[in-house]
Design a protein that fits this description.
Chain lengths: ~350, ~350
Amino acid sequence: MSEKTSPATAAAPPPDEHQRMEVGAEAVPRSRFARIMASSAGRNLGLVVALAVVCVIGVITAGDLFADVDNVITILRLAVVVGIVSIGMTFVIIGGGIDLLVGAIVALASVWATTVATQQLAADFHWIIIVFTAMAVGAGCGLVNGVLVAYGRIAPFIATLAMFAAARGLAEIISDKRNQLVDDPGYVDFFARELFGVPVLVYVFALVAAIGWVLLNRTTFGRRTIAVGGNEEAARLAGIKVQRHTVYLYVLLGVACGIAAAMLLARTGTGTAQHGVLLELDAIAAVVIGGTLLTGGRGTIVGTVLGVLIFQTLSNIFTLNNLDTSDQAVAKGVIIVAAVLLQQFVAKRAGST
Amino acid sequence: MSRIMNKSLLTRVAALAAVGGLLFACTSNESGDDGGADEQSAVSDNDDPGKTVTIGFSGPEADHGWLAAINDSAEAEAAEYDDIELRVAEGTNDPNQQISQIETFINGGVDAIVLLPTDGDALTEVATQAMEAGIIVVNVDREFSSPFAARTTILGDNYGMGVSAGTYACGIIEEEGISDPVIAEIQGIASLPLTQDRSQGFADALESCGESVDNQVSAEFTVESGEEVASNLLQAAPEIDVIWNHDDDQGVGVKQAFDNAGRDEFAFIGGAGSCQAMDLIESGEMEATVLYPPTQAADGIKLARLLAQDKGLSDLVQVEVPTRIVLNAPVVTADNVEEYRSLCFES
């Protein structure tokens, strides 16, 4: 388990807190950096193997139905909503937090973006208003969450749980518990339109993933996120404004939820308070399978994307094989455990060689 | 004629189908053209003001269109009568909270309780207590586990829904002479007894014409889940002849998945009877939907009033209100959609 020992040794007896922080966030010694890279790549390799195994199972059991361009597109299209949320969630979890609210934010954003007033505005200007409204609502929810967690000092679990009830309730009040249809057909058509055989929806997911990757791996923001999640006190001593950064992380997730809500509107043509039920669990599961530590301080965007794809491919294969729902649930549980074990095994091999 | 009869069965308490072979429905004194749920006056003095009755109503949280319609129609029905004083408990999905609501009704000394339980088994005990306290309990939609827990039970026919859908599917297959048809089924939450009843009815009806379900998937009554499982289903079966979707609420997503994939080679049959589904039937984008009436609680209110005022069902020879009423599950098609408009609900 070298990937566990390397951060541990990095965090082991530091000369002083400040120095330790620099080791963690800014000036990583070359050899250690190389090792961490190797192990993180190793973990992702494990996921690629797992995904490949799942695909092989799909080809064997479902044959041409599975190995079909349209089917791959279907899997990608269904991965969009949970995928975008999971990328936001990756940041929050790496930063040492958790958000149980995402499903409710998606519901609220989808409802708010399809109210009569918003749709009227969208009809007057452009349907892009719907997307911006969803993102703004998401950002607002994230801001409240972040402030509660960072400045209110409420445990993330509790703060988001409280907001969870409130947000879905608000969504029900606004929508009067009814489905709100998207009136502008141009909206759904735009995201369903195919460029080079792939729907625009999927490009949005790819774009969000790419931005997430750059943000996490190539910017100070990303390094600070890892630092805050790895050791909050050390990050604070190193001069990072931990509270403000935590707020940023939740706002980031909120915006991701808003985008996801906009994509869900495009997929279903409907805004409702019932959107995103249990989405938080799917997102957290994908993030964790993707190799992100629930305790924070480590994680990858690539892993999260692979985690989401593994899940979607699995349920696709179950449906293609016409499996009973109860069997699906059992098989899914077994496969999740198997995937994590396989991932650890491969990571270990990659780390030790 | 049978269609008109079905409609009246649905819209009028007086003509509800009765179970047990003891009772039969009769529509002889019906007005004929029936426009809405509010014109249900049988030719009897049942609707004349009687002694004022206090009715407590408790149901699950109205978190989707069908349940919202249940609550709205119940309250609207109670408002029709000057002699009903309705007390509505806050909708909840927590059996414990609903139990305490019923206890409050018992302590408050209501004459009757109309109860759509979050869980039939969990509410049986407190309903029995209410009955023992001399309060008339009317059980709606989800059944108690004991016959002593309610004076009368009124419920939709989930098994019958499946039978109606299956029989209709058989009709399409025979009419169009499809050999070896591909039949797909989109369930609601698979673990619920009501889902299993619907699927069993569907399978039994299909068996009668020598067919069976080829592809079965389960959604969760939500638009999002409907879209997701339908997308995968279309992938699993490149060519489908008949699809029965159990629930029109999730059907909004199912339809969207069909549109996204550009598939419409099949006959699309829905369930429950939302206004959106009826719109689609009118425009020809949907074949039919099987009704699961959202007016059960409204009928429950009427029954509770009759019971509390010692009245019977006017169109029955029997002087007492029956102990069990199972509502019919008719198929709504382009031919008769106008008749059923008044029963639809906004999902």
